[in-house]
Design a protein that fits this description.
The complex is a heterodimer of chains A (about 325) and B (about 475). Chain A contains 11 helices and 4 strands. In chain A, strands 1-2 form a two-stranded antiparallel ribbon. Chain A has a two-stranded antiparallel sheet with strand order 3-4. Chain A is rod-shaped, with a radius of gyration of 40 Å. Chain A starts with 7 loop residues before the first helix and ends in a 7-residue tail after the last helix. Chain B is an alpha+beta fold and about 475 residues long. Helix content of chain B is about 55%, strand content about 10%. Chain B has 11 helices and 13 strands. In chain B, a hairpin with a 4-residue loop joins strand 4 and strand 5. In chain B, helix 2 runs antiparallel to helix 10, helix 3 packs antiparallel against helix 4 and helix 6 runs antiparallel to helix 10. The chains are: A mainly alpha (about 325), B alpha+beta (about 475). Chains A and B meet through helix 1, helix 2, helix 3, strand 2 and strand 3 of A and helix 3, helix 9, helix 10 and helix 11 of B.
């Protein structure tokens, strides 16, 4: 290396190199300030970005679980509504039918039978309830009705009654139609299946199972008693006044007895609702925690970035001043 | 006679100082020329007066040799870094919202949404398009790797052409310099030109310049392959314009470098030409990009096998949700699977399938209950079970494997960036030291002042001698 002279180009090269370095720092810092995120995440995390990727993945899934859980809450709430409705119908009908005795007036009995007929239709309609187009009590066959039309069911029941004069036969026929595993209700009354609708609301198989079916013993008991009253109405004159009174009273008792079953289903659904609500609040808390963790990995501290930006700007100005001054120092000006 | 001797002394002084002025003016004119070696005139005393011994080029040979090796290292690191940065972009940088990892999360989310209402064609359509997006992003990554290999191959071809042209030019300049020398002419600008040509190829392979006397040079790579020594070595390379995943050096799909007709090294096609940007390009094409391809293929295979498991989808008759262009994946031969990954046509209405198969299974013949979300849940569970690949390794979930891939690519790029900044810093320092030996216009101007004074003094001597002779004439 010469001790006498230093080439012009070396000063020029050094100045260019420094200017490039300061300007690229400046542009990076400006970018960080504008986007709020660190410029080169891989570098700032030291190369191991697996935790960042995993957090992003979990946050995305968390939001989906939230939405699914809210959907589940909707379905469960709709189910509770229908159960309440069915319970009300049962209660009203029960109060009416309990008053019937074999000694009651024909007119009263006719009215009670008509009320039973209407009540049966209403309960069937309620059990065919939907939420956002999906059936609530039909299992996974949620595209269609859960229970067949009231008229069709009653016609089938009546066709199975061998002796309309004997109230015991009538009641037995209706009971068998509903309770027999190969009876009319299983074959043509219940149109759904007993596979539970399942909504995924958490990882590792955490799902809400919508497992109230129109086929459940408790709901069938309500239908059975209401159907008995409806059959009495449809049979009309072929049943004697005394028999009519007896059958309607039986129906009323049956309706009163099925209240406990409905309450049990409501309690079961209520437990599920509480579980889903806990899951939703847990998911919300997880979302907050994960967002905070993600921010700590990704976000650029605006104050620190602004300070460094200011310092770099000052440095660039000084560098320009130095370059200008040095370029003015040449022997040619003095000769 | 002493008076005429004084005149001839003064004359020689004038001619030498005017030559010195010429050299100084040449230096100043070239003060911005990179690769110009500062000239100076050597003078020595003659029998009578002064004589010029010739123009010397001031070159620090050791520094130049170091800087040339740094050139090669810088060229190699630059090429490695730019390719690795592009590889990092393939799977998406960490945290990027449209990387492969984000698309996998999106697919899983759409499965969860669909369980909430499996009867909804809209939600099932979303699952289909999310899986389609995932498959197409893996496809794009796979085909981009092969494009990068093609780019590397083209870069090798260009480098080989540059070396060949450069060697021919250097041989030509060698001949010109030796001819000029024997004719007694100035060879400085020819040597400058030769230095520039050598600098032009020093980034491609690491070079050692050998002095062969009489102004001739020979060239050798730093690992010992002779490129120029009297005769020019011809390097040959056949480019492969279209490269697919199964084309490797061993399979004969891509080629190595030939020297005077024979392959330089059957193992890596490169041999003792390694160390510069040529070596880096071959390394990329034959090793680094291939391992990136197999990493992507592993991810594709993992996903495909998860969905081909009969315990996940009992209706399978061969292909699962993802296929290798319509066929099941073959764990013993899946090179390039990333580029061939497709969604099974059976679940895509646009290809003759039905959306109901998302509920009933890929091989389902008839439609099942529309509220059935069990299959959708099984597919989501399949993504989250820990599985190993047939090639071995830890058992991980699909998302973890992708996260590992993204992290590996990122770390490779970071490593290359550190190496590049080290090579750049070293090159900058050597280059700066080399430039410091260049033309300093202040010094040239100062020399010119001195030359002017010397010229004036010599001229004054001539004037005085002439006056003395005049005095003699007046006798």
């Amino acid at each position: 290396m010469s001790l006498i002279s230093i080439g012009d180009l070396s000063q020029h090269f050094v100045s260019l190199r420094n200017s490039h370095r300061i300007k690229s720092d400046l542009s990076n810092l400006g970018n960080e300030l504008s986007t709020g995120k660190r410029a080169d995440l891989t570098k700032s995390l030291g190369g191991d970005t697996r935790r960042l990727t995993a957090l992003g993945h979990s946050l995305g899934l968390n939001q989906s679980y939230m939405m699914a859980a809210k959907n589940a809450q909707q379905m469960l709430a709709a189910t509770q509504n229908v159960l309440l409705n069915v319970d009300n119908l049962r209660d009203v009908l029960a109060t009416d039918l309990i008053l019937a005795t074999p000694e009651s007036q024909t007119g009263q009995l006719t009215e009670s039978a008509a009320a039973a007929r209407a009540g049966f239709s209403s309960i069937v309609a309620a059990l065919n309830g939907t939420s956002a187009g999906q059936g609530l009590f039909a299992g996974t066959l949620s595209g269609g009705a859960a229970v067949a039309d009231a008229d069709i069911m009653l016609a089938d029941m009546i066709s199975n009654i061998t002796d309309t004069g004997d109230p015991v036969v009538v009641k037995q026929a209706v009971d068998d139609w509903f309770d027999d595993p190969s009876g009319g209700f299983q074959t043509l009354g219940f149109l759904g299946n007993t596979n539970a609708r399942s909504i995924r609301i958490g990882s590792a198989g955490h799902s809400v199972k919508l497992n109230v079916f129109a086929n459940d013993k408790e709901l069938r008991s309500v239908l059975k008693s209401a159907a008995l009253g409806a059959v009495v109405h449809d049979l009309g004159g072929s049943v004697s006044r005394r028999d009519r009174g007896a059958l309607l009273a039986d129906a009323g008792l049956g309706l009163v007895g099925s209240a406990q079953g409905i309450a049990q289903i409501q309690s079961r659904v209520g437990h599920q609702e509480a579980g889903v609500a806990r899951t939703v609040s847990g998911l919300a808390a997880q979302q907050t925690t994960m967002s905070i963790a993600l921010n700590s990995l990704e976000a650029a501290d605006p104050f620190e970035t602004a300070t460094r930006l200011e310092a770099t700007q000052r440095q660039l100005e000084l560098h320009f001043t130095a370059t200008a001054r040095l370029s003015q120092l040449t022997l040619a000006d003095y000769i | 006679m002493s008076i005429s001797t004084s005149l001839s002394n003064a004359l020689s002084g004038l001619s030498v100082t005017s030559r010195m002025a010429e050299v100084a003016s040449n230096n100043i004119a070239n003060s911005l020329t990179e690769g110009y070696a500062r000239r100076s005139l050597e003078t020595g005393s003659a029998m009578s007066g002064v004589r010029s011994l010739g123009v010397t080029r001031y070159v620090n040979a050791g520094l130049l040799a170091d800087r040339r090796l740094a050139d090669a290292e810088l060229g190699s690191e630059q090429r490695a870094y730019s390719t690795l940065a592009q590889i990092e972009g393939l799977a998406g940088t960490a945290g990027s919202p449209d990387g492969i990892a984000a698309r996998l999360a999106n697919f899983e989310s759409s499965l969860i949404n669909a369980t909430a209402d499996p009867s909804s064609d809209v939600r099932l359509g979303n699952v289909l398009s999310a899986l389609g997006d995932l498959a197409s992003s893996i496809n794009a990554a796979g085909s981009q790797v092969q494009t990068l290999r093609q780019d590397a191959d083209a870069a090798i071809a260009k480098d080989v052409t540059t070396i060949n042209t450069g060697l021919t030019q250097i041989a030509q300049l060698n001949a010109d310099i030796s001819r000029a020398r024997s004719a007694g002419q100035e060879t400085s600008s020819l040597m400058d030109a030769r230095q520039n040509v050598i600098d032009g190829i020093s980034g491609i392979v690491p070079l050692r310049v050998l002095d062969r006397g009489n102004g001739q040079v020979g060239l050798m790579t730093s690992q010992g392959m002779t490129l120029l020594d009297g005769t020019v070595t011809e390097l040959e390379f056949t480019p492969s314009p279209v490269i697919t995943a199964d084309m490797t050096l061993a399979s004969g799909g891509v080629f190595g470098i030939y020297r005077n007709g024979s392959l330089v090294d059957p193992n890596d096609g490169l041999g003792r030409l390694a160390g510069g940007s040529l070596g880096a390009a071959m390394d990329m094409r034959d090793r680094i990009l291939n391992s990136a391809q197999s990493a992507l293929d592993d991810v594709a295979l993992g996903l495909t096998l998860r969905f081909e498991d009969p315990s996940v989808d009992p209706t399978i008759t061969g292909t699962g949700l993802l296929t290798d262009r319509g066929s099941p994946a073959d764990p013993s031969d899946y090179i390039g699977l990333a580029g061939r990954l497709e969604v099974n046509a059976a679940v895509d209405p646009a290809q003759g399938g039905t959306l109901s198969r998302w509920r009933d299974g890929v091989g389902a013949v008839s439609a099942g209950p529309i509220g059935n979300s069990a299959q959708l849940e099984r597919w989501q569970d399949a993504l989250n079970t820990n599985r190993t690949l047939p090639s071995g390794g830890l058992a991980t979930t699909a998302a973890t494997r992708l996260g590992n891939l993204v992290s590996e690519f990122g770390q490779a790029r970071l490593g290359a960036e550190k190496n590049l900044s080290f090579a750049q810093a070293r090159w900058d320092n050597l280059h700066q030291a080399e430039l410091a030996d260049g033309v300093d216009s202040d010094r040239e101007l100062q020399d010119l002042i001195r030359i002017e004074q010397a010229y004036a003094a010599n001229a004054k001597v001539m004037q005085t001698i002439s006056a003395m002779i005049q005095k003699l004439m007046e006798i």
